[in-house]
Amino acid sequence: MSTTPRRALIVVDVQNEYDRGGNLAIQHPPFQETVLNVAKAIDAATEAGVKIVVVKQLAPETSPVFAAGSHGGELHPEVAKRPRDHYVEKKLPSAFTDSDLEEWLRANAIDTITVIGYMTHNCDLSTIIHALHMGFAVEFLSDASGSLPYANSAGYASAEEIHRVMTVVLQSRFAAVLKTDEWVGHLKAGTLPERDNIPASYQRALSKQAA
Predict the structure, then answer these.
(1) Which of 9, 154, 158, 189 is within CB 3.0–4.6 Å of 45 for a Cys-Cys bond?
(2) The domain that contains 23 carries what CATH number?
(3) How far apart are CA 19 and CA 25, in angstroms?
């Protein structure tokens, strides 16, 4: 039986709001680097015949971010100028909530989604967990995504900390986490990326602590 996944590339919220000058400018990894990997992943998917879904966050005209009709709310040119097979608009973090994404994926016999875009710790995370609960296998390209720093009543975390911790947590259970070039290699070779589990991740951590 073939183990080759039937993939769809899910391009989450690659909008101008995350670019330099936007109200949510991505800090780590830098947006200017990661958006090029977004473009590379879309091009590789197109070449490999992998279906592409573009997701866009919507907000009212009065919203401080992603306001309807604003420059920040529009798709970034690197995504807007590239082909796509399906388009989803959303108002909540998960691309599955109140959208036809699951129905479209099922209709196209997709069993694996590859998530790229922004932000690692918010819409990517929500979409990935939602997909896992629906029975999809998930891949996440960590250099085609990014995070912001946060400070609130719970404390402070840098963008690097948030992105790094999220990728470790995702790899432990929710998704196969890999770089864009690695993913392109798997597309060309028809191979599967490494997946992990919580017990193994925990035991490795104990070994590092004891070293």
Answers:
(1) 9
(2) 3.40.50.850
(3) 5
In a domain, residue 110? The reply is yes
Say how many Å lie between the first and final Cα of the chain, rounded: 42
Tens digits of residue pLDDT in 56-104: 999 999 999 999 999 999 999 999 999 999 999 999 999 999 999 999 9
Nearest to 9, CA basis, from 82, 99, 98: 82
The pTM (predicted TM-score) of the whole model is: 0.96
Nearest C-alpha neighbor of 115 from the set 165, 52, 172: 52
d(CA 88, CA 169): 27
Query: How many domains, the chain?
Result: 1
Is residue 1 domain-resident?
no
User: Which residues span the domain enclosing 112?
Assistant: 7-210
DSSP states of 51-118: EEEEEEE-B-TT-SSSBTTSTTTSBPHHHHTS--SEEEEESSSSTTTTSSHHHHHHHTT--EEEEEEE
